Fold these 2 entries.
Entry 1:
Amino acid sequence: MAPAPLSVLTGSLAGSGQRSSPAERLLPARCMQLLASASSGHLALSQGALPLVVPVTCSLDGGRLLVRAALGLLGASLGQPGVVAFHTGATSPDQSERWEVLVQGRAELHGREAPRQARRPNPPGLPLVAEDATVVLSVSIELVTGWQYAGAQRTRSTISPITKAKKETAR
């Protein structure tokens, strides 16, 4: 049985001129499918008891998530990454649908030599960062959840007041 949409999430999106439709909670199997299609996201971890969120690239390796991050961003967290959260999402080209997936699990350093020799999919490189300045972490997928939002509808005109005034003046 599929989870029911949440009516709590209906209403106007502040300042967007759009009315949101209900959000649908995704089943874990669908979350894993979407996760397999993702190539980037954000990894959240704790560094010195403070939250740290870094952009990463990603790939799915069976039941584990591989993420690549810049060494400079992770700093001292590499010694014991521990419990982490990963977030990714995408919007359809026409912006009528959006999905988000959140993973929680434990991260550990992925062997630097193993990815080059193994048949495992490596996360893509980071733009503008040399590969030797990055590190790959392996994240166990202990909890995966996701949401899909669809059917955004316009509720008011998107013409700005300035454009509207110019059109009226031109008449």
Note: The first strand starts at residue 11 and ends at 13.
Entry 2:
Amino acid sequence: MSRKRYAGYTLIELSITMTVGSTLMILSVGLIHQAMRYHSVTRDRSLEHRLLDRFSGEFRRDIHRAKSAEVKSDGGLELTYNDQTIIRFAAEEDFVERTQLSDGKVIRKETYQFRRAINCQFVIQSDLNQVGLTIQSDTTGQIMNSAPKREFKAVLGRLLQYQAAEVNNDV
């Protein structure tokens, strides 16, 4: 007697294939989820870095143009220009606000909004004629909690010194 040979797979072959496929799919979903989470953290850090670059540039320009600086009792910083324009920096839990005043009226207000809480401290080093800003992110409960402390320093009135030197050289 001859047996007919049917083309196809046995039940055991199909169940083994499905088990291996399911295992690979479960592992890949976990890896994809982890990669998406790290991508999100990296994107947030990149946005924060760009924000800090923009803020530090504005902070340095303001310090270089100012003739005097004062740390206020509320922890904010107040800069005065030669034309009596006042720049105020005020730090809150998750943002720093820059306000430009002229004759007591608000000319421009800009807010630098961070995605997480920050600790911000303004410091005046009168012996070096420098104004400093230290920003430390509060990383409690973050996935990657190694956010560095950032320090920005600028020489008070630096542009005023250069302008005065140019005027003296022209005479």
Note: The radius of gyration is 30 Å.
